[in-house]
Amino acid sequence: MKYLLLIYGNPLNWEHPLFLRDPRFLALPEEERETLTARATALHEEITESGELLEGRALGDPAHARTVRVRDGITATTDGPFVEAKEQLAGYLLVDCDRPERAAEIAAGIPDARFAAVEVRPVEVRPVEVPPVADRPPSPAVAEDGGERRERLRPGPGAAPRARPRRSPP
Q1: Does 65 reside within a domain?
Q2: Do residues 141 and 153 touch, judged by C-beta distance below 8 A?
Q3: Residue 56 · residue 115 · CB < 8 Å
Q4: In CATH, what number is assigned to the domain containing residue 23?
Q5: Belongs to which family (predicted)?
Q6: How is residue 6 annotated by DSSP?
């Protein structure tokens, strides 16, 4: 089963790995900081070698994030995540484990769990159902003959702007 480990941190100093800049980590005796860092490195090597680690990414500074909401056809975009908390999503690991307890064990070994939080979420494995092409309404960006329309399409009031089709390089 796949699990998403959502790693949270304090965005006051957004340089990864975050735990290395956390004031609580910095307040630890040097020997304990070295041990904790070595454990994090060993955990990463262990789950990489075992094949449990499928992917992991750090997220950019929340100061550069945008939150988008659509209500009654009106799109509202605000700067940053809409969270009234000190801890914000900092990154994730996607792991494949036999048991949920193993995913929780990996999460507990991530140093950020000690200073912030690591959330463990099972990943749904059922496929997303997409209707067959024949059952879908025609795309407004595609002409009846299947070619690209030349006229410029304008979204209705309050609608999100459409992405432009990508053109192949010459």
Answers
A1: yes
A2: yes
A3: no
A4: 3.30.70.1060
A5: Belongs to the YciI family.
A6: E
CA-based torsion, 92, 95, 98, 102: positive or negative:
negative
Phi, psi of 44 (to 5 degrees): -60, -45
pLDDT digits (tens, 9 = 90+) for 37-59: 999 999 999 999 999 999 999 99
Sheet holding 2-9, edge to edge: 53-58, 88-96, 2-9, 117-122
Find the domain containing 29 and state its range.
2-122
d(CA 100, CA 63): 33
Mean pLDDT to the nearest integer, 13-40: 90
- Residue 158 inside a domain? The answer is no
Q: How confident is the model at residue 28 (pLDDT cuts 50, 70, 90)?
A: very high
Pick the closest to residue 106 from 35, 42, 59, 33 (CA basis).
Answer: 42
**Residue 138 pLDDT:** 57
Q: How far is it, in rounded angstroms, from Cα 15 to Cα 38?
A: 19
Specify the number of domains making up the chain: 1
SS3 119: strand
